[in-house]
Amino acid sequence: MSYEHACATGLTRRGFLGAGVVGGGALLLGGRVALAAEGKTDVWVLHGTDKKKLMDAAVKVIADHGGLGKDVKKLTLKVNAAWYSTPDEGGNTHPELVDAFLKGCKDQGVKDVVLPEHPVQPANKTFPRSGLLAVAKSNSAAMIDMRSDAKLWKDVKLPAAKNLKAAQMPAHVLETGALINMPVAKHHGSAGVTIAMKNWLGSVKDRRFLHRNDLHQCIADLASFLKPTWTIVDATRIMLDRGPKGPTKNMKKPDLLIVSKSQVSADAYAATLFPKATADRAKYIQMAADMKLGETDVSKLAIHKMEVS
Amino acid sequence: MTGTSKTIVKVLQWAVRLLLLAAALFLAAGGPVPVALGRLFPQLSPLVAVTSSIAQRRWYLGAFWFAPPLAALLLAVWKGRLFCRWICPAGTVYTLGSKATLRRRVLKVRLNGYLFWTIVSASLVGVPLLAALDPLSTFNRLTTIVTGTYTVASLIPGLLVPAMLVLGVIQPMVWCSHLCPLGYFFEISRSFRSRPKEAFVRSRRQIVTGLLVGLPLGALTRAFALGKGRHERPPVLPPGATGIEAFSAACTRCYACVDACPYGLIRVRFDTDRAAWQLFEPEVHYLDSELAPDCGYCPEWCNACSQVCPAGAITPLSLADKQCRQIGVAKVIREACLAWEDGEDCSVCQEVCPYQAITLKIEPDGRALPIVDEDICRGCGACFSNCPAQRKGKAIVVGGVDRQRQVRPM
Q1: How far apart are CA B155 and CA B141, in angstroms?
Q2: Fewer C-beta neighbours within 10 Å, C or N terminus of chain A?
Q3: Hey, is the C-beta of B288 within 8 angstroms of any chain A C-beta?
Q4: Does a structural domain hold residue A7?
C-alpha cells in the first residue's frame, strides 16, 4: 500500500485517463486535486447520486494513482452476486457500478475480465436478478458460477493465517493480472457488517469451515492472503439490519464509493457508516489490524473526500 | 366399412396413439412447456376426479381443469372404451407389449369391476384406496424412474407399467381387459346409458363386493400402520396441500409434483410409521446445500409443484401466495448450534432465510443467537440446508405443520 507503488505506473494511468474522457464523467473535485498523501494509507471517498459518474470518477482516481498495474491482460473482479436480491435491495454490488467499471476496463485495453462468484443461492437465479449478468454480458465479461465445475477451484495454503491455514479458492482469483474487490457494504448477521474483507467468502469453497472456526479470525486470515490491487466499496445504499440478504426497510443511502488500495482501511472507513453497535460486532477489522494487514484507525488514514456530480 | 377405409382408420389410430404417448412422456418428464401442463394426462381420468372428490368431500376442480375428465367421461357414455383404444398412453404401451405374446389365460376372472367399486367404496370413508391403480396416474408415475428423482420407495409403485408389460407377454392386454378400473368405469358408463337395468343386474356382484371390501379396508388402512412408531409431527408437504389428512384423502400417487419440482426435493417415502393408506406418498425432503445439485430448499421463486396436482391434494398457489404459505416450521436445536453452544459467530440460518423469520438475540459480547419466529417461518428449509453445524448434525430442522396456512407477507 506504499506511495511508491501508487506512483509506479504512468502507462496505465494514461490509459485510464482516456477511459475517464471516453466515459464522459464530469468531475467536480470541489476545486481540490485529490493527491495521495505521503506515508498514510489513502482512502478516496466519492460522493454522488449518479452511479455511472461515480464509478467513472473512481476509475479516474485509480488511473491517477497507479492504475491497475503494468501490461494487465486479465482482470478478476470480485463483486457480490451471491443473493437472490434486486439491485435496490442492496444484497449485491450494484450493476450500474459494475457496468461503468467494465467499460473503464475495456477502454483501458483489458479485454479478459472474469467475475467468479461462489453464490449462496443458485447462480442461475442470483446472477440475473442482481442485474450483474446482463452488464457482464454487454461488456463481454464472464460471470463464473463456482458451483458449476469443481475444476475451477485450486488448493492453497495461507502462510500468514491463524485459523484458515488451507482452503480452496477460484483459480481466477489466484492467477490474474489485476484483482479488484468490489463488494457492497451491508449489515451482516454473523459478522456485524460485511464490506471488503468479508467479500472473499464468495471465493472460498468450504465456507462452513469458517463458521465453525472463529469466523472473524478466518476473515482476517483471508485478507492476509488475498490482496486485491484495488478495492472499491459500493456504499451507494446500505442495509442497516436484516443483512446480508434483506430486504429491509431500514436502508441508508450514503451514495458513496470508497476506493483504496487497502481493503482493510476501506473496511475501517466503511464501517463508520453503520451504527456503532453494529460496526463494533465486526471484530475481524481489529483482528486484521493486529495482524498488521492495514491501518484501521480512521483518524490515521489519508481520506480524500470528493463530490461527483 | 371397406377394407381400405379400415386400414386408413387403423393407421390414423396408431398415429394418434403414438403421438399422445410421446406427448404424455414429454409432459411428465417436464418438457419446456408451462409446468401446469404436467397435469394434463393424469387429469384426464374421471376416476380420479370422482374418487378424490368423494374422499375429500369437496369438488376440487375449477371450470378449466374440470373439462378433461368430463370430456373423457362423455366420450365413454357415447362410445364406451374409445378412450382406451385411442388416447390412454398406458393402453398404447400395453398394446405394443402384447404384440408378442404366449396367449395363455392365467387370470380368468375380470377383476376390474371389483377394483373399481372397492376404490369408490373406500373413498366413501375418506380413503381413495387403490386409486393409484388409475392407469393415467400409473403411467405418469413411470417418469419418477426416468427423470432420476426416484427413491427406492418410488420403484414399487413406479414399476407397475413394466410389471403389466411382462404379464402381457403371458396373457395379452391383461391389464386393460381384466384389471383396469378406469376401463371398467368407461365400460359401465356406456352400458348404463343404453341398458341401465341390465347393467345394474350384471354389476351387482362387483358393487356388493366392492362395498364389503372397500369400506372396512379403507377404515383399517386409516387406523393402522405397518410399523410401530408414530411421528410427532406430520411430514412437510408440498405448498398448496392443506394438511396430511386432506392430502392423503386425495393423492393418487401420480407423482406429478415429484416430476414438477425443479430441485428434486419432493420424494416418495415408504414410511412404515405412517398409517398404511399413506404409504408411498410424496413429501418434501430438504437437502444439504453442499450436496444439492442446485437448490436444497423450497425456494421463494418457485411454485411449480402446486400447479400440477390432478387430484386436488395440492391446490394451485400463485407465487405471491406460495411465498406466504407456511408448509413447516423450523426449530433450532441449541445443543448442536454453533452460536448457542460453541460460542461461534454463526448466524447462517438468519442470513439465508428468505422471509426473515429468524431474529438474532445479540449478547453483550456481540455474539448473535438465532431464534425462530414461528409466526413468520414458512418452513422452506433454507436454514436447514445451509446450516454449517457438524458436531451433532444440523442445528436447525424443519417439521411439518398440522395445517398449512397463509402467513402475513413480508
Answers
A1: 9
A2: C
A3: no
A4: no
- With CB atoms and an 8 Å threshold, state whether B388 touches A120: no
Lowest-confidence region among A18-27, B257-266, B347-356, B367-376 = A18-27
> What chain B residue is nearest to A188 in terms of C-alpha separation?
B351
Least confident of A116-125, A161-170, B135-144: B135-144
User: The domain spanning residue A130 has which CATH number?
Assistant: 3.40.50
Is residue A179 within 8 Å of residue A228, measured between CB atoms? yes
* Closest Cα in chain A to B341: A212
* Residue A135 pLDDT > 70: yes
Q: Taking CB atoms and an 8 Å limit, are A281 and B352 in contact across chains?
A: no
Between CA A141 and CA A127 the distance in angstroms is 13
Element (H, E) at A26: none
Q: What is the pTM of this model?
A: 0.89
Residue B216: which residues within 8 A CB-CB, separation 6 or more?
A: none
Which amino acid, one-letter code, is at A25? G
Annotated domain spans of chain B? 7-223, 326-405
Q: Is A223 inside any structural domain?
A: yes
Dist CA B368 CA A163 (whole Å) = 21
Grid cell, residue A176, equals 490474474
Q: What pLDDT band is residue A24 in, cutting at 50, 70 and 90?
A: very low
Q: Domain for residue A272, yes or no?
A: yes
A84/B295 CB distance under 8 A? no
d(CA B173, CA B393) in angstroms, rounded, equals 51
ipTM of the complex: 0.86
Sign of CA dihedral B194, B198, B200, B203: negative
Number of domain units in chain A: 1
Domain that holds residue A93: 45-50+68-302
**Among the listed residues A288, A275, A309, A295, the one whose alpha carbon sits nearest the alpha carbon of residue A218:** A288
C-beta of residue B115 within 8 angstroms of C-beta of residue B209: no
Model confidence at B281: pLDDT above 50:
yes
Candidate from B299, B351, B386 with C-beta closest to A244: B351
Q: How far apart are CA A160 and CA A171, in angstroms?
A: 20
CATH architecture of B326-405: 2-Layer Sandwich (3.30)
Asked whether residue A224 is assigned to any structural domain, the reply reads: yes
- Please say whether the dihedral angle defined by the alpha carbons of residues B245, B248, B250 and B251, taken in this order, is positive or negative: positive
